[in-house]
Specification:
Layout lengths: L1 H6 L14 H8 L6 H12 L3 H23 L9 H10 L5 H13 L2 H17 L10 H9 L5 H12 L7 E7 L2 E6 H17 L3 H28 L27 H18 L15 H36 L2 H4 L4 H9 L2 H36 L17 H18 L3 H32 L11 H25 L3 H10 L1 H12 L27 H19 L3
Antiparallel strand pairs: 1-2
Helix pairs in contact: 2-11, 2-13, 3-12, 3-13, 4-12, 4-13, 4-18, 4-19, 5-6, 5-18, 6-16, 6-18, 7-10, 7-16, 7-17, 8-9, 10-16, 10-17, 11-13, 11-15, 11-16, 12-18, 12-19, 15-16, 16-17, 18-19, 18-20, 18-22, 19-22
């Protein structure tokens, strides 16, 4: 492996550059903890007092699963794009169509982080620059309205006065419409989010080294405040332990009444585990940059391991203090559930006056920018490597003089501008996009957790820079089916059509792959695709795992469908 690495230290034209070590990947992946801001309100709204346990259990699962990805990433020192690329090669022997499914699902799982993150960041900016005024029944404006409109109730007066005092920019819309189960709109949130996305694109254009350097400084400004938010309430005694009991599901989503451990309750819990996985598993993006590591043999494992430790700390600590301070009713407040008020809620937990509050809100915006940068870096490299390896159209293989996959980045950008218009419409549309993308993420995890043992059987003779204990590899395979239960049972919690929309989106890879493989490549894969394994296309005919991969796919589909049938709200 050292020979391969040495040969590629000087970047060839048109290839990614070996410019970073594991620390660079760590800083690029340091945006993952900010994903807690995407769904902390939604998970609290659907699981109630179980929310902190949902985050904890999901994070532990994600950390244990990552060891499988660390092993298979080490097999491919000359590839980037993440575990989906490395796992796809394991499935290639058994089906040409299952392999690209892994790559595609990972991309459409990660890519919407750009649009969803920009929509939340835009909402935070609007809240800071054009806040909605708050009135009570004793406010002079409300009393004056009641006096001028005899017989008006206080509630109606508050509504009328609030509407009149709301800044026009918050209600301005250039155009909006309904599209199937979601809406889309070109409003102020969309415009601010689009500007943020273009700024992040310009930073990414400088290549992975420039991205890592920028994210190192943003990361320091984000990770430390998130630690403050997690630790200060504990130190100052703000945690109310009554907020953690009784440990039962809600009777219904977004309502404070406690439920029971029945089918409906379990469905809400599984819905929480489903959507939490989209955030807590995300640090596996640290192995997206294998072909950009100076020493992939050692950097790969360190990158994912230390990124996992960071996420373990923040994904457990922040939801715990969030729940301990706010309590159930605080977590069910509309601005918290829809995500627009999460930054205000977290800042309020620390105290310190308006200056500290404003500073923390600004840092939460930076946190979102950080995770958006992480997503663009990872998802664009998935598109790039998918193109290089023959899964996706050829035009995505281009990189610029800085080693940045710019055509893949432009594709990400254009796709996410469309998704941003949907995410900016309302909370229902936001969580629909999140649930659909997470269906792809669960499919990717299922395929790649099983790719670990398939690689062991078919490619066991190849030296591994880091080898996972066999029991962890087996545990990952079990978790693959647990994840399918989360998807089958939990996707419907967020939208009745989410599961089926996710499966349809996953199936879109079939015409895309057929175009590349059958039309552009005339039915042959690029010779270099299997170079890291020392194989040629003729070696793909040897299937040491026999029918086990096919039985695995059938069992996964059965588990998902049974979970969807059994668990109902």
């Amino acid at each position: 492996m050292s020979t391969i690495v040495s040969a590629l230290v000087s970047p060839a034209e048109g290839k990614l550059h070996r410019n970073i070590d594991w620390r660079g990947a760590f800083w690029v992946a340091s945006g993952v903890p900010a994903l807690v801001l995407f769904s902390i309100g939604g998970i609290a709204g659907t699981t109630g007092k179980l929310a902190f346990l949902i985050w904890t259990m999901s994070m532990i699962m994600g950390f244990l699963q990552s060891f499988t990805y660390a092993e298979i990433a080490g097999l491919f020192p000359n590839k980037s794009g993440g575990a989906s690329i490395y796992g796809a090669t394991a499935w290639l022997r058994y089906s040409k169509f299952i392999a690209p499914l892994s790559v595609w699902c990972n991309w459409f799982a990660w890519s919407p982080v750009l649009s969803l993150g920009c929509s939340i960041a835009a909402a935070y900016i609007l809240n800071a620059l054009a806040p909605v005024p708050v009135f009570t029944d004793t406010s002079p404006e409300v009393l004056a309205y009641i006096a001028a409109n005899a017989g008006t109730s206080a509630a109606d007066a508050i509504t009328a006065v609030s509407a009149a005092a709301t800044p026009a920019i918050r209600t301005w819309t250039l155009y909006g419409h309904t599209l199937g189960p979601v809406s889309f709109t070109f409003n102020a949130t969309f415009l601010i989010g689009a500007v943020l996305m273009l700024i992040i694109f310009s930073i990414q254009h400088r290549g992975i080294l420039g991205t890592a350097n920028v994210q190192k400084y943003i990361g320091l400004f984000v990770i430390i405040p998130m630690l403050i938010v997690g630790v200060v309430p504990i130190v100052t005694g703000q945690i109310d332990w009554a907020n953690f009991s009784p440990l039962v599901p809600l009777a219904a989503a977004y309502a404070p009444e406690p439920g029971a451990w029945n089918i409906a309750g379990w469905t809400l819990v599984l819905g929480g585990m489903f959507i939490a996985a989209w955030s807590t598993y995300g640090f596996e993006t640290a192995v997206c940059y294998t072909s950009e590591f100076k020493n992939p043999g050692t950097d790969t494992f360190k990158a994912i391991f230390y990124s996992g430790l960071l996420c373990m700390l923040l994904f457990i600590l922040v939801p715990f203090t969030f729940q301990g301070v706010l309590g159930l009713n605080g977590m069910l407040a509309t601005p918290v559930v829809d995500g627009s008020g999460v930054a205000d809620a977290l800042a309020g937990m620390v105290g310190g006056g308006q200056l500290i509050h404003s500073l923390l809100v600004m840092l939460m915006i930076l946190a979102l920018v950080l995770c958006i940068m992480t997503a663009m870096a990872g998802s664009s490299r998935t598109l790039y490597q998918g193109s290089v390896d023959g899964w996706l159209p050829r035009y995505l293989s281009h990189v610029n003089e800085h080693g940045a996959p710019t055509r893949a980045m432009w594709t990400d950008l254009i796709f996410n501008l469309a998704v941003l218009a949907i995410a900016s419409a309302d909370a229902t549309s936001f969580f629909f996009i999140l649930a659909v993308s997470n269906c792809g993420y669960i499919i990717f995890n299922f395929l790649n957790l099983n790719a670990g043992w398939i690689h062991r059987i078919d490619n066991g003779h190849i030296a591994r820079p880091w080898r996972a204990p066999s029991w962890l590899l087996g545990l990952g395979a079990i978790f693959a089916y647990v994840n399918m239960i989360f998807m089958g049972a939990g996707a419907k919690v967020w939208n009745p059509m989410a599961l089926w929309a996710g499966l349809i989106t996953a199936a879109l890879i079939i015409p895309v792959f057929c175009f590349r493989h059958c039309i552009q490549d005339k039915g042959k894969f690029p010779d270099h695709m299997l170079a890291d394994l020392g194989m040629t296309s003729s070696d793909l005919a040897v299937r040491k795992a026999g029918i086990l991969p096919y039985l695995t796919l059938i069992a996964g589909a059965v588990v998902m469908l049974l979970a969807n049938w059994l668990f109902v709200i």
